[in-house]
Amino acid sequence: MKNFQFYNPVRILFGKGQIASVTQQIPVGAKVLVTYGGGSIRHNGVYDQVKAALQGFTTVEFGGIEANPHYETLMRAVALARTEQIDFILAVGGGSVLDGTKFIAAAIPFAGEDPWDILSRKAKIASAVPFGAVLTLPATGSEMNSGSVITRVSTQEKLAFSSPLTFPKFSVLDPETCFTLPPRQIANGIADAFTHVLEQYLTYSINTPLQDRLAEAVLLTLLEEGPKVLANPTDYDAMANFMWSATNALNGTLAAGVITDWSTHYVAHELTALHGIDHARTLAIVLPAMLRYRRAGKLQKLVQYGQRVWNITTGTDEERAEAAVQATVRFFESLDIKTRLSDYEVGPDTIQHIVQRFTERGVKNLGERADLQIADIEKILTLSL
Ligand code: NZQ
Ligand code: ZN
What we know:
single chain; 385 residues; Rossmann fold; globular; binds zinc ion
């Protein structure tokens, strides 16, 4: 096992009616900025629950944070928060609102010239405004991690940052807030969480049986509970199991002490940046080709994944690995998620565009063996056409 430090200070408030308890988690007398998205919380009662819970606080609101949150929009929230001198932020929504809020929290006190440097130059974050979250979409794990992905519209860039200062102080996970999710967002959430596990699991073994089995437990639970949620989004138990699985997929436990990959996410972010394709769908496009192209280096884990998750027990190792990839593709397609670039009308010109920007960015040595180069990424994307 690799040496590791594990730090996760996020308090989880899980279950029905838990929004009311945010009152006890926000410092008395704090002026609270409430951030949210395009309006889903106004239609499902979540907004009203939050307002009721915040009755004893002075609040300021900032709505309109879009999917794949825009730097341009978030900077308007930063200006508002500075003017209003807010003390605490409460993010209410999906991964985009949470990620956007992490950026706002770090950008408010940022002393440098432009907070975009936090993303583009990995500028150091010396402090951040404390924030909590009410999650309404199980998918990203943002509710229990310190990562954030932000899009800059003017340059079509989508970049990530993380900092120990951008963990939420708490996150409310009430499955009932997710009952209004449309099938497309549920499917996205299942595929995103599933891929998060695979990025931390399908690498090479260094004898970490506990982490492997934890990863497999999350995968198997997503496979069992995901379709139940799709069939009946108001099934409380299924939603609760899905929600906690998605959180566990990316809260740091699966990554502790193991070898991780993350190249699928790195490449896939470009497809959202350039074409606005939903995050989960870009993963479903890139992942199969990534696994096939890199089968030799991931062979032992692919065989284990096939056996323990998909019950694939016959054939040569290569055949089993291919069968495991095929099972994964069938699973994505069963969620009504298409897995080829051509399904989204994206062609070779986009591959050249990505190659060009990776070249300008000096991208190199991706993947668990730090051996994945731009030429490989070009071939992988070509395989996914
Ligand atoms: O904006 P509103 O009106 O709230 O509608 C949203 C949005 O249109 C809607 N929605 C959310 N909760 C709902 C609901 N509709 C009905 N009922 C509800 N309860 O769903 C739409 C999508 O929301 P969004 O927040 O964009 O989805 P998701 O949670 O999948 O977040 C995706 C973003 O997270 C980033 C992605 O790159 C993408 O920008 N990621 C963040 C990660 C992290 N912080 O660790 C890791 C991930 O790999 C990912 O990159
Ligand atoms: Zn993801």
